[in-house]
Amino acid sequence: MWNGDQHTDYTKDYGMPCVMPASFSLGFSGVPLVHCDIGGFFSMASLKRDAELFTRWMEMATFSPLMRSHESIRPWANVQFDDMKVAPYTIRLTNVHVMIKPYIQKVLEQAKEGIPAIKPDFWYAMDYSKSRDEYSYFFGEDLYVCPVIEKGAKTRKVYLPEGEWIGFWTGKEYAGGGEYKVEAPLGNTQVVANIK
After folding, report:
1. pTM value surpassing 0.90
2. In sequence order, what are the beta bridge partners of 60?
């Protein structure tokens, strides 16, 4: 299931950020496998995506069941996956998605039991009062993803659930239950893996 035709922007109600709440709602409603149009779909008047937005969206979709872009309503007005500014990230992030294929297959097996692939930050605590970031999510059991959802952002505030965590890109270890301000270079959305 795809979770709707988002706008090609960062608006919280219609753009990239609304992907996460939509995915959570579908998961709670019995639709365990959800994906989105990388880059969004609706593009009207001055509404069009640039290389940064497309790359940030692709970072998020790398850690999802399906990584698929969309040319949008107006392909000529929107940056695409093969744009010179985006292509290096397309190659790198697609390779990461392929690399984690065994993990994705495990997530797909869990979905057969009705367990959503994409879950909100409070899922394992089973306590909504533990929610600290409505735009971060668990992908499967062991990956926690904190997408960059603001234009021009160079850092990302990350609230980690309880547990012990290690940065996917950096290998840096973090204690759960706290807040961190982390670097967020383009092409590296913040992802941590659970240390068991």
Report:
1. yes
2. none
Q: How far apart are CA 101 and CA 192, in angstroms?
A: 17
- Distance (Å, whole) CA 138 – CA 77: 33
CA distance 196 to 151: 34
Q: Tens of pLDDT along 71-104?
A: 887 888 888 899 999 999 999 999 999 999 999 9
Contact 108, 117 (CB under 8 A): yes
Q: Collapse the DSSP code of 143 into the 3-class scheme (helix H, G, I; strand E, B; otherwise coil) and give the result.
A: strand
Output the average pLDDT for the chain: 91
Domains contained in the chain, CATH given = 16-194 (2.60.40.1180)
Q: Are 147 and 170 in contact (CB under 8 A)?
A: no
Tokens encoding 130: 């533990």
Whether 92 contacts 99, CB under 8 Å: no
For residue 99 the two structure tokens come to 């690399």
Report the C-alpha gap between 51 and 37 in whole angstroms: 15
Convert 88-97 to b/e letters by CB count within 10 Å (16 or more is b).
ebbeebeebb
Residue type at position 75: P
